[in-house]
Amino acid sequence: MNRQFIALGSMLLRCLVVVAIASVPGTTYVFAQPRLDLPPAAWQPTGARISWKGLSFIVPPGMSGAAQNDLYEMVGLGMRGRGGQCGIVLGEIPSRGDLATYAQDLLVGNLAKLGAGIADSQGGSNLVADRRVGRSADGWRYVELNGMVNSSGVNRARMMLIDHGATVISIFAVSAPGNGCVGLSLETTPNSNTITWVALYYSLKLVGATPSNHLREQILGHWVGSGMSIAAGAGMLQDVVYAANGRYGGESLTATATGKQVSSSGDGSYVVDAEKLAIFPNAGKAEAHLTRVVEDYSVMTPSKPTVQLCSVRVDVAGPYERCLSRR
């Protein structure tokens, strides 16, 4: 492992009073079983599953991991990194009030101890304003904060805190310039390498977590968004509605590199199973994607979140996450 690079994240968490995650003898992981009649997700995390102190996860491809006493450290290029390094450190610390405020205190206070500063997307100090709030399919609540770091070897940092009762699971990540495994809110990072962070998220399991119907409840409504298809060499606009009766309908507009515009529409039925959204078009092949609903706050509009429906898609360049906003 690149010890020099990971030292920043490791030292940050070691500045805290880290509480080891207690493993209860005889405890087994109990999670809702997926429906066998649904198509497999277009992409899902693969690799050896690590069980460590009450957590279960898969180290993202392109990274190596190792337990370091009360922390688990990962480092490498990540899934689509082409330069620099990505470092991720997992741990658990005592809970202390509001998750977002706590995350900001951890990032600001402990980076300061290391002689580094961190700023929000506008160069200010309000990291809480640039936050993501969500709930996993296994029921755990989380918040993510991110910022720009004024360190020679690190230019982006992100922290996720997961509510775990009397403690919080902390996942701290830093990326060197050009790596892009973490980024600022609404920032397009190099090579879409934020899929590395997404891959860890979708692989993460907590002992004792209770499955949630969050996605099934929150998917209802009208969603719109734009994106880029590398496979088609085209920009896309998408508009879709998911109804309470299990039906969906929508349309898309594609503009190719030659200026040609192609519109299409479709409808059918859909099923939500844990974090998987499966659609069954009236005309076409069934497909499924790992999906989550999140609330993204911005320092530009701190009191008005953008609710997003984010799914992992795959094109010729590999997996990436595309989000539609609630209309």
Q: Which strand-content bin applies to the residues?
A: over 45%
Structural class: mainly beta
Q: What's the CATH topology label of the largest domain?
A: Protein Transport Mog1p, Chain A
CATH superfamily of the largest domain: Mog1/PsbP, alpha/beta/alpha sandwich
Query: What percent of the residues sit in helical stretches (DSSP H or I)?
Result: 10-25%
> How many individual β-strands?
19
Q: What's the Cα radius of gyration?
A: 20 Å
**Distance between the ends:** 45 Å
Stretches with pLDDT under 50, minimum 5 residues: 12-32
Helices and strands, in N-to-C order?
A: HEEEEEHEEEEEHEHEEEEEEEE
Number of discrete domains:
2
CATH class of the largest domain: Alpha Beta
Strand order of the largest sheet: 12-13-14-15-16-17-18-19
Number of helical segments with 4 or more residues: 4
